[in-house]
Write a structure and sequence with these properties.
alpha+beta; Nucleotidyltransferase, domain 5; 14 helices; 5-stranded mixed sheet
């Protein structure tokens, strides 16, 4: 009885956090509370003092609109940390916003963080160090497709092959999962950001319109597609005419944007086909029966599941909210840690 009392007492002073530290967005899950934060991975800093001016959605709204005394930074690139110090500040901010607690509590924080498949030891260490510097006393890493598989309800502990394609902002992770481990995995740095850049290039070369990266992202979300649609979609795109230097806008349709993102989409499909080719026959038979699970923001590209189905002849499933698959999976690992800790890679 006394032991239970102390377990409850010290448990009250411990914080347990699951985090999807993504290139585009950071999501935070708190044990026993669920998802409590989903914000863009953007930080605004004072160029004079280095102090944080804004983080998340507020910082994203400032992106490209700041003056010389403030700069906006996306500290994650291609799924890994590009700016260690700014990432540290971003994680610290999100933890403080999640808990509104003192630094005493943060020192007792356990964190489970999703990371891309096949990241290097140096990149793993960078994530762990950033989390520890932000106040975590215990850090565990889970590969993102494994977390996504757990998040969509795949029984990853069974001796059965399941394929997950997770398309995030910076990376596309393709993995074949069996017995709580990745039997074959591949990560390529072609994903949502690459599509945004492709749209930006297309607008500049085809329409002589220079647009911001977040405007390109908006266009992708509104009318982007991987295969022809039953109805024509259009949107107004605003930017600067590169010939005159004057603000301008044009209307583009889904066919043009489909052409713009054709190359990154093709690269993703190539990785999927290569993964299927390298999968052992027994696991391939399971995948034929179970189909492929498509998660991450890229799963929202219209018709992408159809393109993958046509090229692989396999059924492709998309969960109700593919953006939340990784954070839901890391949350389950956190909530059932003793049972699920074997899926952690550190």
């Amino acid at each position: 009885m006394i032991k239970n009392f102390f377990n409850k007492l010290f448990g009250a002073f411990s914080l347990e956090v699951a985090m999807d530290l993504g290139t585009a967005n950071t999501l935070v899950h708190i044990k026993d509370k669920g998802l409590i934060l989903n914000e863009p991975s953007v930080v605004a800093l004072s160029t004079e003092t280095g102090n944080v001016e804004a983080v998340g959605l507020e910082a994203k709204q400032m992106f490209g609109r700041t003056h010389a005394k403030v700069e906006t930074i996306r500290p994650m690139k291609d799924g890994v940390i590009a700016d260690f110090q700014v990432t540290n500040k971003m994680i610290t901010y999100f933890i403080e916003k999640s808990f509104k607690q003192s630094s005493f509590f943060k020192r007792r924080t356990k964190m489970v963080v999703g990371v891309p498949t096949c990241i290097t030891q140096v990149e793993k260490k960078a994530v762990i160090d950033a989390a520890r510097d932000a106040g975590a006393s215990e850090v565990h890493l889970v590969e993102e497709p494994m977390a996504a598989a757990i998040g969509v309800g795949i029984p990853v502990h069974k001796p059965e092959g399941n394929m997950v394609i997770d398309i995030g902002g910076g990376t596309t992770d393709v993995a074949v999962i069996s017995l709580s481990a990745i039997a074959y995995g591949e990560s390529v740095r072609v994903a949502g950001d690459e599509m945004d850049e492709a749209i930006s290039r297309f607008m500049r070369t085809e329409h002589h319109l220079n647009i911001g990266i977040f405007e390109a992202e908006r266009v992708k979300k509104e009318i982007g597609s991987a295969s022809p649609l039953s109805e024509r979609l259009t949107t107004e795109v605003k930017g600067i005419n590169v010939k005159t230097g004057i603000p301008a806008s044009i209307v583009v349709d889904d066919e043009e944007i489909r052409k713009a993102i054709q190359e990154p989409i093709g690269n993703i499909v190539t990785v999927v086909l290569r993964a299927l080719e390298k999968t052992p026959p027994e696991l391939s038979a399971d995948i034929h029966s179970n189909g492929i699970f498509l998660t991450g923001g890229g799963a929202l590209i219209r018709g992408l599941d159809k393109v993958i189905e046509e090229r692989t002849t396999l059924k492709v499933y998309i969960p109700n909210d593919p953006l939340l698959s990784i954070v839901q999976g890391t949350g389950i690992v956190l909530d059932k840690f003793e049972e699920m800790k074997k899926v952690c890679i550190n």
